Amino acid sequence: MDHPIQGLMKTAMENIREMVDVNTIIGDPVETPDGTVILPVSRVGFGFAAGGSEFNAGERGTANGGGEHPFGGGSGGGVSINPIGFLIVNGNNVRLLSTDNQNQLYDRIIDMAPVVVDKIQAMLRSNQEKSAPPSRPM
User: What is the DSSP string of 37-48?
Assistant: First the structure.
């Protein structure tokens, strides 16, 4: 026979499982008229506790008339959901727009990286063209 605390734990875990699913972390996509897809992203944390005790019924026997002691217990849980940003997908371009203002510097650096790489490549090409000897017609 299962112990009563197992029933408490099972019920609490099933309720938490119903509350927290993949749609809680990555929200439902929203498509804009230009085809950009926006996905909300959240940080989810949860906690769970259960406990109980069997009580001695005294000399009169147990409450249920059997050889077992009466049981008293409880369980509880909590869920914390914090939005952290939005994934913005436009074609092959994917970007994370953070709701945390502290990450704006990193976001700008990541956004500027392709432009910086293009400028460096252009400088290298122009240096190679300047240093290459002129071609002679044959």
Answer: EEEEEEEEEEEE
* 5 and 19 fall within a common domain: yes
> Mind listing the pLDDT tens digit for each residue in 8-63?
778 777 877 777 666 677 888 889 898 899 988 888 887 777 777 877 766 554 44
**What is the side-by-side order of every strand in the sheet holding 93-98?**
30-31, 37-54, 71-90, 93-98
The pTM of this model reads 0.47
| Owner of token pair 């875990």 | 13
Rg of the chain on CA atoms, in Å: 31
User: Do 12 and 75 have their domain in common?
Assistant: yes
